[in-house]
Amino acid sequence: MSSSTIEVNPYVRKIHEFPETILVPGEDGRFALFPQLRSDMPVVVEIGSGSGNHMIQYLTRMPRCQYFGYELRYKRLYRTAQKLAEAKQQGYVVQCFAQKMPEHFAPASIDTLIINFPDPWAKLKQRKNRIMAPQNLKIFHSLLKPGGVVEFKSDHHEYFLRARENLLDSGFAVEAYTLNLHGSAYSADNIITEFERMFLHKVPKRIGWLRARKVG
Ligand SMILES: C[S@@+](CC[C@H](N)C(=O)[O-])C[C@H]1O[C@@H](n2cnc3c(N)ncnc32)[C@H](O)[C@@H]1O
């Protein structure tokens, strides 16, 4: 991290105000203090946790879980830690690319993976960068416990359909699925994220949602 980046973005420093919640890698990219997992509580990992709305609501519903959010943006990490503190909830946010999860979690150690509105990388040449690309689904499959689940939603229709195909080709069964989350029975249990709230207030967009279970 260069000194000019720190000057323009105050949150690069501010995230250190929450050392027990925001996990920040050292210069070598490693985490000195990654929490030890408990065996008596499910492990939930959200990729691209944004400013933490999903995390907070999920923990309100299910306080007895170990929740980790991977997020790259400093201000969003900081906001999440503030919200967790206000709500007196325990959770972690990890400041690094989610693709590094295998350095932090043992194989077959995660119960639930949540991916809400990932960057769509819409151009053909960019699609290899998608978080739901086959090389990442292989990682998710190895880290999930037998019977573990992936929950995914997106307003990008082509990405959503492609992700579903990729999951089916990667050892998952899609057990719940809708192309119009807010017009479906699944909306009753839906947690509205920051991005989703923006759509609801602007041009309404159809949101695809699915739950897939590891079978292979
Ligand atoms: C479009 S936003 C959605 C945020 C949130 N899930 C929501 O629905 O409001 C995508 C988020 O994913 C984060 N992100 C993108 N690629 C990531 C990666 N490889 N690992 C972790 N976070 C990532 C971005 O910083 C951004 O905050």
TrEMBL record:
Any one Gene Ontology cellular component term annotated for this protein: tRNA methyltransferase complex
Main enzyme class: transferase
SUPFAM superfamilies cross-referenced by the UniProt entry: S-adenosyl-L-methionine-dependent methyltransferases
Pfam families: Methyltransf_4 (PF02390)
Protein keywords: Methyltransferase, S-adenosyl-L-methionine, Transferase, tRNA processing
Domain of life of the native organism: Bacteria
Catalytic activity: guanosine(46) in tRNA + S-adenosyl-L-methionine = N(7)-methylguanosine(46) in tRNA + S-adenosyl-L-homocysteine
GO terms assigned for molecular function: tRNA (guanine(46)-N7)-methyltransferase activity
PROSITE patterns on file: SAM_MT_TRMB
EC number: 2.1.1.33
PANTHER family in alphabetical order: 3-DEOXY-D-MANNO-OCTULOSONIC-ACID TRANSFERASE/TRNA GUANINE-N 7 - -METHYLTRANSFERASE, PENTACOTRIPEPTIDE-REPEAT REGION OF PRORP DOMAIN-CONTAINING PROTEIN
Function as written in the Swiss-Prot or TrEMBL entry: Catalyzes the formation of N(7)-methylguanine at position 46 (m7G46) in tRNA.
Protein name: tRNA (guanine(46)-N(7))-methyltransferase
